[in-house]
Write a structure and sequence with these properties.
By secondary structure, this protein is an alpha+beta fold. The protein has two domains: 86 residues, Arc Repressor Mutant, subunit A; 106 residues, 2-Layer Sandwich (Beta Polymerase, domain 2), CATH 3.30.460.10. Helices cover 49% and strands 19% of the residues. It contains nine helices and seven strands; from the N terminus they run ααβααββααββαβααβ. Helix 2 crosses helix 5 and helix 6 runs antiparallel to helix 7. The longest helix has 16 residues. It is elongated. It starts with a helix and ends in an 11-residue tail after the last strand.
């Protein structure tokens, strides 16, 4: 970089060192990034992160000073959340989610898409913890906007390098094809499955094993 590039580089390096020099800070950021938009109060963060409350307080102060975490008061409680529009928020989120693995990233991205009633993976990806060489087979049931789903899936593919084959269907269409013994659905239901999102009860025939 030219001009003031060295100054920018020094600022970036200092921030990353400050961000990742503490296990407590990493646990906090991991929790925030896995649950975008969620707010937590102090004792809740202590319970979820499993560290001393003084360490939580200290790291929250650091993160607020970096403007990466913001807070608000409601009664006697103070709530904290990630600052979504921070200049490094998206990049940092990708780092944490990629480190957590493709399944966490996929679950998180799909969770942000409205209209999904149910989402599950099936086949070998449902029984392996590592990135499957043959890609991921995903079924999404509901009324979600296809362009939002495609964007979420593309983001997962770009971040992890894993191919996601996504089938999108409405609940009524899925039930109709299930009754008609559609070969594809029959194959899906006979394969190993892992539920990522479930917002409505499954029919008895569609229950995961």
């Amino acid at each position: 970089m030219q001009g003031n590039g060295i100054i920018v580089l020094k600022y970036d390096t200092a921030m990353l060192e400050k961000l990742f020099s503490s296990k407590t800070r990493v646990r906090l950021l991991d929790l925030f990034f896995r649950n975008p938009g969620q707010e937590y109060y102090l004792r809740e963060l202590q319970r979820l992160c499993g560290v001393e409350i003084r360490s939580i307080q200290y790291e929250l102060e650091n993160l607020e000073n970096l403007n990466l975490v913001v807070s608000r008061k409601a009664g006697n409680l103070k709530y904290f959340r990630i600052k979504e529009d921070h200049i490094f928020a998206k990049e940092l989120r990708d780092i944490f989610l990629k480190a957590a693995g493709w399944e966490v990233l996929l679950r998180t991205r799909l969770g942000a898409v409205p209209g999904i009633e149910e989402a599950f993976i099936f086949g070998q990806a449902a029984v392996k913890d590592r990135n499957p060489a043959d890609g991921i087979s995903l079924v999404v049931i509901g009324t979600a906007d296809s362009s939002l789903l495609e964007s979420a899936v593309f983001d997962v593919e770009k971040t992890t390098g894993v191919t996601v084959d996504c089938t999108i269907t409405g609940r009524e269409e899925w039930e109709d094809e299930l009754k008609a013994q559609n070969p594809f659905i029959r194959d899906v239901l006979s394969s190993p499955r892992k539920t990522l999102i479930l917002r409505t009860p499954l029919s008895s025939k569609g229950q995961s094993s």
